[in-house]
């Protein structure tokens, strides 16, 4: 009898925990989530993601395995994320695509939020504000293109 009550209590606690997690997610202002895992089976994933951009807009969420990933799919939204909303995008979990894109080197766009990252960002921003921006733009576009491939 005690075992039955214990199982019932555990079931109720697990259900409450699940509902609490859903309630907390509902209160966040998150971009739309692509349902299911079928996107992982697409033969040409970048083209598929571009199609989702046309349907859902330039910002949406995607579930890759057990991880939700926010996809930014336009130059304007990427620039806004890296310039105006940089704190929101700093300190993200390390995922294999990050390691591939950064080649295991810390960088500003995918770096971890730390004192080193803040100093790196400050130095880069100073260089951009001093007029180096026009000469760096082709390099930034090249790196973005390589990252997208």
From TrEMBL:
Its EC number is 1.14.14.16. It is a peripheral membrane protein. Its cofactor is heme b. Pfam families: p450. Its main location: endoplasmic reticulum. One of its GO terms (cellular component) is endoplasmic reticulum membrane. Keywords: Endoplasmic reticulum, Heme, Iron, Lipid-binding, Membrane, Metal-binding, Microsome, Monooxygenase, Oxidoreductase, Signal, Steroid-binding, Steroidogenesis. Coiled coil: none annotated. One of its GO terms (biological process) is steroid biosynthetic process. Belongs to the cytochrome P450 family. This is Steroid 21-hydroxylase. It comes from Sus scrofa. The gene is CYP21.
